[in-house]
Amino acid sequence: MTGSGDERAHKRSRQNVSQACVNCRQRKKKCDGNQPCATCLSYKDECVWGGKDDWRKPLSRSETNALRGRVEELEALVQEYKTRLELVSIQRSVPSVDSSTRSPMCQKLAPPRHRDDVEDVLHDDDGTLRFFGPTSAFHRAKPCHPPSREPFNTRGENEKWSRFLPDVYITRDDHDTAVDRFFRYFSAFGQRVTPHLFYRDMEIALDLPEADIPVAAPNYSPLLHNVILCLGLAYADEGYLRAVTTRRAFHEEANRRLDSEIGNPSLATVQGLALRSSFSSTEGDYSVGWINNGLATRMCYALGLHVDTTPLVERGKLLAEQNTQRCVTYWSCYVQEEMWAIYMGRTPLMSQWHSVPYPTIDEATDSWEWTWPDSCAPPQKMYLSTCFVYTTALMRIATEITTTIYTGRYQKSDLVHDGTVKRFSDELTAWLQSLPAPLQLSGVDTDLVLPHVLLLHLGCSWIAILLFQPFSQVADRQDVDFGKYAMTRCHRAALKVHRLAQLYRAQHRLKFVPPTIAQTIYTAGTSFLLAAAQAADKEHAAAALAHCNEMLAMLREISVTWHAAAQKALILEELVTEYQNSTDAPDPAASLWTVPLARDHPEPSPTTLEHPWSASDATLDDFIQSLFSQNTMPLGSDVDLMALLQDGMGFGMGVAQPQG
C-alpha cells in the first residue's frame, strides 16, 4: 500500500511543462521536462528534444490589445515619475544662463532660441509625422488613435481587392480599368497620386489591419481608393458604371471612411481629401468643393508637409521615398489650390510660409509606362514627374499673377507703367523656353502628344489670358498701345487653346479629359466673345464668334463626362445669346478667321509669348487694329459686355449670372 501511495503522490506532484520531447509529442503523453524524461525512461527510449521551441497557443487579439494598453499605461507612469524627479531637481538647483548646462526638462519646456521647423515635427510612436509649432502643447503629448472599427480581412484571395469598397456591383476588370484611366487622364496633370506607389501599397494594405495601413502603406488608404473610383468610373464605357448614382456610392463610402482616417492620417489621406473636393466640383457643387479642398490644405499643414524634412532623412529618421512623396503631395495640393482660386475668383491660401523645397524629377515616376490605345504607337515613358515639376513652376507664376492683378490692391495702370505686367510676361516666356524636349510640342498635329503634356501647354495659354485680359479693353487713348498688345496676347492664347483642344479631341477624345480643360476652354470662349464684341469689322467679329461657338460645342462634349462642363456651357451660351440680342451680331457660320500658326510661326509652343512690337503678324495686327477703329463698343447703351463677362469670370473661371 505504501509503495502504491508514494507512486500516486509522485504522479500528482509531477509538473507538466509547455514544451515536450519528441517521443512524448508523438505519443501525446505529458512530459516532465527532464532529460531524459520519466516517460522515455519507462519506455527505455532515447529522450530527444527538438522541433518547435514553443508550442503554446498565440495570444488572441483582445489579449494583445490588453497587454499593449497595459504597457502604455506603465510607460505613462514612468514618464510621470521622471517628470516629477526633473521638477524636483530644478527646484533644488540654481538655473544657469548657459543653455548647454540646462536640464533636459528646461530645454524641453523653454521656447526655441532659433527657429528650426524640423524640430517642431513630432515623430509619433506609430511612425507618422505630425507638425506642432513651439506654441502648442500637443508636440509634448503622446498620440491617441481610436481603435479601428474595421474587422480584419476575411475575404478570399479573389475578393480582397474590394475589401474597402461599397456593396456595388463592379467586376475586377471594371475596377482595374477605372483606376487605370484615372491615372492616365485625371491624375497625371498635377500628379494628384503617384501610380506605382499607390498600386504597390494597395497590395500591401489589403492584407493588413486597417489601423496599420498609414505606416505600412502610406500611399494607400480606403478613402483614397474610393475617391479614385468615383472619379475614374466617369471614364467608363458602360452607362451604369458612369452613372452618377453609381459613382456617388463610392463617394459616400469615402465620406464614411473619412471619420476614421482623419484621426490617423497619411499622405494618401491628404490626396484623397483633395480628390474628394474635385468630385464635388465636377458635379457642379463648387462651393462644397472649395470647402473640402480647404480640408486637404489643413491636413497638409497638420502633417508638416510644408516643412523641409531633408534633415530627417540625413539622420536616418525618414526614408528618402517618404521625403519625396511629402514634397510631391504638398506641391500637388499647391497646384490644386491655385486652380481652385482661379475657378472661384478667390485668393490662394498656400502662397507662402513653407520651407519644403520645390519638387525635383523622379526617374521611377517618369518611367511609368504609357500605352497608346489600339497600339497606334509603341509604349513610352509618361514623364509624370517632369511634367509635374514644370506644372508647379507654372502655377507659382499664376499665383503671383492672381494675387497681384485680381486682388484689387493695385491700380492696373500702375502695374503697366512700373513693369509688373512685363515681368510676369517675361517669366512666362522664360518658363516656356525652359521646357525639356519631352514636354515640347513639335508643331505637327499628326505627332502624338501625351494628354498631360497637352494640358501643360493649355495651362500656359490659360494663364496668359488671365494675365492680359484685364488690360485688353482700353477706356481712353492714353494706353492704346498696351491695349493692342494685351488684346493680341489674349487672342493668340485663345487661338492656341482652340488648336490644342482640337488636338486633344483628335488624339484622346474629349470624353477623356480632366475637369481643368473645361475651365480653360470656358476662359478662351469668353476671350473670343470679347473679341467679337469689340470688333468693328463684321467678318472678324463673325470669326471670333464662330470660335466661341466651337468652344461651346467642346464644353458640351466634355459634359458627357463631367456635369460641371454643362454648367459652364450654359453660362457661355447665355452670354452669347445676350450679346446677339444686344447688337447686330454677325453670322457665326461665316468663314473662320484664324492666325497662321505652324507655317508662319516656327515656334511650336501653343502660346506665342514674344512681344508683338518686335514680332507681329500682319493678319493679326489687322484684326486687332479693327478693334480700335471705333470710339465705343458696338453694343447697345444698356449693355456692358465686359462687366457682364467679368461677373461670370471671377479670374476667368467663375459662375456667371447674366444681367438684363
From TrEMBL:
CDD domains from the UniProt entry: fungal_TF_MHR (cd12148), GAL4 (cd00067)
UniProt-recorded Gene Ontology molecular function terms: DNA binding; DNA-binding transcription factor activity, RNA polymerase II-specific; zinc ion binding
Annotated ranges, domain Zn(2)-C6 fungal-type: 20-49
InterPro entries: Transcr_Regulatory_Elem, XnlR_reg_dom, Zn2-C6_fun-type_DNA-bd_sf, Zn2Cys6_DnaBD
Cellular component GO terms held in the UniProt record: nucleus
Alphabetical GO biological process terms: DNA-templated transcription
Disordered: annotated segments: 98-118
Subcellular localization(s) per the UniProt record: Nucleus
Residues in coiled coil: 64-91
Keywords: Coiled coil, DNA-binding, Metal-binding, Nucleus, Transcription, Transcription regulation, Zinc
Name of the protein: Zn(2)-C6 fungal-type domain-containing protein
Natural source organism: Cutaneotrichosporon spelunceum
